[in-house]
Amino acid sequence: MQISATIITFNEEEKIADAIKSVAFADEILVVDSESTDKTREIAESLGAKIIIQKWLGFGKQKQFAVEAATHDWILSLDADERISDELKQEIINLSPKADAFKIPRLTFYLNRPVKHGGWYPDWQIRFFNRNKASWKDVLIHESVEVAGKTDKLKGDILHYSVEDMGHHHRMIGERYAPLAARQMFERGRRTTKLKIYTAGFIAFLQTYILKAGFLDGFAGFCIACFAAHHAFLKHLLLWEMQKK
């Protein structure tokens, strides 16, 4: 079984090296870069990665482009802010695949601590798959792999270092996640009301912090729940604006 590790990037000079080093066991490392203006490509190339420059297509399409450009059929797909844990690495190396795709638990670090509650773990992701049986869905946000075959699970974690600080988390929601979520809801025919705008934030906080036990992650869990509330409020507000137009 030969493996192509694929990573999509844009201005990831601070993170790309660790991501590439974590998949150094792969037979090919392919970085698809959407016209970075920093040293992302130079760093990736110095670590032995193959580089393809591709104008941004959207998350799902960009990742599928990488899959199709890879040399080998078995794909290990990673984001620049993710790492393959040592346990997962050994699992994959010793694997004799009896499935077409594998779900992998993803462990996110927030305020320098692993988050195990609030709906953030195990956060199953299909990231290791045979491209003849699976492909990335073409969606605006929360892209995922669709499998036309058998799916199994692995135990080792993908380590996720997505949020740099509170300001970064706030910008991620305001500039990316909430606008894209609202657009996707609108295009799928979903509509909102003023009542939903009033209540969405409170419900999201309650679900994250209480029902999903986010309080067990301490201050980090409280911050995550607050940002979940902000995201829910903002996406409904933006959707409402789209409806009015």
Features:
globular; 4-stranded mixed β-sheet; 245 residues; 13 strands; alpha/beta; 7-stranded mixed β-sheet
**Secondary-structure element pattern, one letter each:** EHEHEHEEHEEEEEEEEHHH
Percentage of residues assigned to helices = 40-55%
Shape: globular
Q: How far apart are the termini?
A: 52 Å
Strand content: 15-25%
Give me the count of strands: 13
Major sheet characteristics? 7 strands, mixed
Multimer state: single chain
Low-confidence stretches: none
The helix tally amounts to 7
Q: Output the structural class.
A: alpha/beta
Q: Specify Rg, calculated over alpha carbons.
A: 19 Å
Mean model confidence by pLDDT:
97
Strands of the widest sheet, in order across it, are 3-2-1-4-9-6-12
Describe the structure.
- The structure is a single chain.
- This protein is of the alpha/beta class.
- The protein is 41% helix and 23% strand.
- The chain has seven helices and 13 strands.
- The protein has helices at residues 16-22, 40-46, 59-69, 86-93, 166-187, 194-211, 218-244; strands at residues 3-9, 28-33, 50-53, 74-79, 82-84, 101-104, 106-110, 113-115, 125-130, 134-136, 145-147, 151-153, 158-160.
- The protein has a seven-stranded mixed beta sheet with strand order 3-2-1-4-9-6-12, sandwiched between helices. Strands 5-13-7-8 form a four-stranded mixed beta sheet.
- The radius of gyration is 19 Å and the shape is globular.
- The model has no long low-confidence stretch (mean pLDDT 97).
